[in-house]
Amino acid sequence: MAKKQNKKPQKVKVVRINFSWIYLLLIGGIIFMLLTSKGVPAQKIEWAQLEEMIQAGDVKEVQFVRNDFKGDVTVRPEKMNKYSDLFPGGKVPSSAPQFYFLTSSKFDPELEFARLNAFLDPQDRTKLVITNDAKIWENILEWVFPLILFILLWVWMFRGMGKNMGGGPGGGGMNPFNAGKTTGKEVDKDKVNVTFKDVAGLYGAKEEVMEIVDFLKNPQKYTALGGKIPKGALLVGPPGTGKTLLAKAVAGEANVPFFSMSGSDFVEMFVGVGASRVRDLFAQAKEKAPCIVFIDEIDAVGRARGKNAGWSSNDERENTLNQLLTEMDGFGTNSGVIVLAATNRADILDKALMRAGRFDRQINVTLPDLNERKEIFQVHLGKLKLSKDFDLEGIAKHTPGFSGADIANVCNEAALTAARRGKKAIDNQDFLDAVDRVVGGIERKKTLMSPEEKRLTAFHEAGHAVAGWLLPGCDPVLKVSIIPRGQALGITWSLPDERVMWSRTQMFDEMCCLVAGRIAEEIVNDGVPCTGALNDFERMTKMAYAMVSYYGMSEKVGNLSFYDAQGGYEFTKPYSEKTAELIDSEVRALVDDVTSRTRTLLTENWEGLEKLANILIDKEIIMSKDIEAIFGPKAGKHGEERLLPENQEQPEASAEAEPAADAPESAETGFVSTNTTDNE
Question: Pairing with 62, which of 139, 392, 555, 620 sits 20 to 30 Å away (CA)?
């Protein structure tokens, strides 16, 4: 017996009618009917010509419309050939009327036609028909047709533009009547393929967010003990650390409606639109509660009020923020609506927005550590073809301070580099070159450097390398290059320790390493300085002022801190001019002491520095093993003797790293570059 084949049921194709085409066809048909006519149109003649035609007995009938002062002339068929020259191309109309004439209001058709017919035989006389046109349909079409046409055009244009311009469920877009509707879109769970398994690292942040999702899935687990669902959670962290990715994972994991929009979507040029969109967003969220509302880059609308000179009580952004505050925790409660928000500028947000009851949790999404970087690399390496000797541990150690976005960029650059070299698999060198390109920029292979410029650059970078290798508080030097990259003529790479606390001695050693490039230039160039130390001096100056005015590392200034955690909104200095002079003098004394100690260090080790610079001139790139071959192992760190200012012999103090003000750029940005010689 033949086996029956299981035929899969065919899907029924649903044909959807696009009403826009119907509108276009309808309008086109009407315009075509108006522009086209049946046959040859009737020709206009004057009354004198009509008199001659009537007297000749050629006119059969005249229909005169009294209220239009117009007459339609029908010529006898056998007489039409006489008047063919009056028509374009000599083509005679096939239907009546063939002619028409216009008169004035004083014209009396009965009298005139009686006069003309009086001298004609009965069979040659012209029949006169006088009518009054009521014009009912003409009046109706005159008002109704434009109105219908306008409505059709309105519906077609704004409906189409609203969809094409991203109007969202509220039908925004170009429709002015829907300007106050929210542009937030409810995320379709079937289209989001990101889950918590796809989010590598972010251990603490992921646990916090997963608990919120678990609360929505199993509320009885928490409410049985009297707990309440949190109203909001704020994701705070540097750019590229995965805040939006974490929100996508929430959308993929949660079995509740998920609304997503950006903070800039609330801001419009129309007054009241932002507040209206906030109301509409939360109105939709209440209807589908329990649900989650995600606002990305909330700092666009949640900026602190009254701190900006350009803001006033009638500012549109301030009204939008006030409405957002009311909706999140106002007189009317939003039960079951959880607000997730993300920003990398939490310091400028309004305090009323940050309080408990609106954002109950502030989740810090920090830069990944070594183990987290390994997990992130594993996520991005899944689609790459790697060589068998690929070292994941080494690459993860080579990228301290890199964010998730930076790691994704490194993986992509490594693949492009291997493809550019014609390789069949990506090896470790491709990744190392990709890191160099991400950190320092693309190689400027066509940049021409004179022998003297190359020599000065080599000694400059060698000065950084020697100071970084001999000073215990500096990070270990990994590689030195004098190949121009980006805006730099040479770069010294180091591998910074993943630390958040900096001691005074560590910061002092780091400043010595920064100024070592300029001092090496001056020694080899007979005391003549160059412009290559701009970036070094900029970072050293910021570090020195941070030590004196932020971290209390000066005896004369004392344990005072003038750091503004709110982002510097104050327009006056929180100290007197005398204190400002004291800070400047302490900073200058600190920099002079750093310069003196660094010059002594390089002078004592000049033979090795000169040897290292010559190797760098020949090879253009040297590694840590080349430095170790000349100076021995890297100087130990904590607990060993180090260079200290003479006036700072008190016990070490520790400084907690703060953003934007502190010390080494390697700890601030995560880049492995210790120095950049700017081509200014």
Answer: 139
Helices (H), 36-88: 47-55
User: How buried is 182 (Cβ within 10 angstroms: 0-12 exposed, 13-18 middle, 19+ buried)?
Assistant: buried
Spatial separation of the C-alpha atoms in residues 569 and 650, rounded to whole Å: 35
How far apart, in whole angstroms, are the C-alpha atoms of residue 652 and residue 642? 12
250, 210 contact by CB (below 8 A): no
Of residues 235 and 24, the one with the higher pLDDT is 235
Angstrom distance (rounded) from CA 512 to CA 318: 47
Report the distance separating Cα 146 and Cα 509, nearest Å: 82
Q: Order of strands, edge to edge, in the sheet holding 185-186?
A: 185-186, 258-262, 291-296, 337-343, 232-236, 361-364
SS3 (DSSP) at 484: coil
Secondary structure in 3-state letters for 494-515: ECCCCCCEEEHHHHHHHHHHHH
**The dihedral of CA 386, 387, 388, 394: what is its sign?**
negative
The token pair at 309 is: 């000179």
Contact yes or no for 342/298 (Cβ under 8 A): yes
With contact defined as beta carbons under 8 Å apart, do 474 and 467 qualify? Answer: yes
Report the DSSP beta bridge partners of residue 65: 70, 131
- The length of the chain in residues reads 680
Q: Give the distance between the most distant pair of CA atoms in the chain.
A: 141
Burial 12-41 (b: 16+ CB within 10 A, else e): eeeeeeeeeeebeeeeeeeeeeeeeeeeee
Q: What is the pLDDT of residues 460-503, one digit of tens each?
A: 999 999 998 998 888 888 888 888 887 778 888 887 776 778 88
To which residue do tokens 């994701």 refer?
235
What one-character DSSP code corresponds to residue 386? B
CA proximity to 612, closest of 504, 508, 467, 484 = 467
- Quickly tell me which residue has 């934007």 as its tokens: 660
Rg, the chain, Cα only = 42
State the amino acid at position 273 in one-letter form.
V
Is-contact 337 291, C-beta < 8 A? yes
Give the residue from 263, 255, 256 showing the smallest Cα distance to 234: 263
Cα separation, 544 vs 550, in Å, equals: 10
The Cβ-side half-sphere exposure at 7, using a 13 Å CA radius, reads 3
Please provide residue 401's backbone torsions phi and psi, each rounded to the nearest 5 degrees.
80, 0
Selection from 288, 290, 275, 263 nearest residue 169 by Cα: 288
Backbone dihedral region of 56: left (phi > 0), alpha (psi from -120 to 50 degrees) or beta?
A: alpha
pLDDT confidence of residue 166: 43
Q: Tell me the pLDDT band of 135, cut-offs 50, 70 and 90.
A: low
Asked if 624 and 493 count as a contact pair (C-beta separation under 8 A), the reply is no
| pLDDT band of 651, cuts 50, 70, 90 | very low
Catalytic residues: 461
Question: What ranges make up the beta strands (E) of 90-244?
Answer: 99-102, 127-131, 185-186, 232-236
User: CA-to-CA distance for 376 and 381, rounded, in angstroms?
Assistant: 9
Hey, what are 437's tokens? 């390109």
| Whole-number pLDDT of residue 474 | 85
CA pair distance 92, 98, nearest whole angstrom: 8
Beta strands in 245-336 (DSSP E): 258-262, 291-296
Quote the CA–CA distance of 284 and 291 in Å, as a whole number.
10
Q: What's the gap between Cα 199 and its chain centre?
A: 22
Rounded Cα–Cα distance for residues 292 and 269 (Å) = 28
User: What is the C-alpha to C-alpha distance for residues 478 and 461, in angstroms, rounded to an integer?
Assistant: 12
Please tell me the distance from the alpha carbon of residue 549 to that of residue 556, in angstroms, as a whole number: 11
Provide the CB-side half-sphere exposure for 170 (13 A, CA): 27
Closest CA to 72 of 41, 48, 94: 41
DSSP letter at 308? S
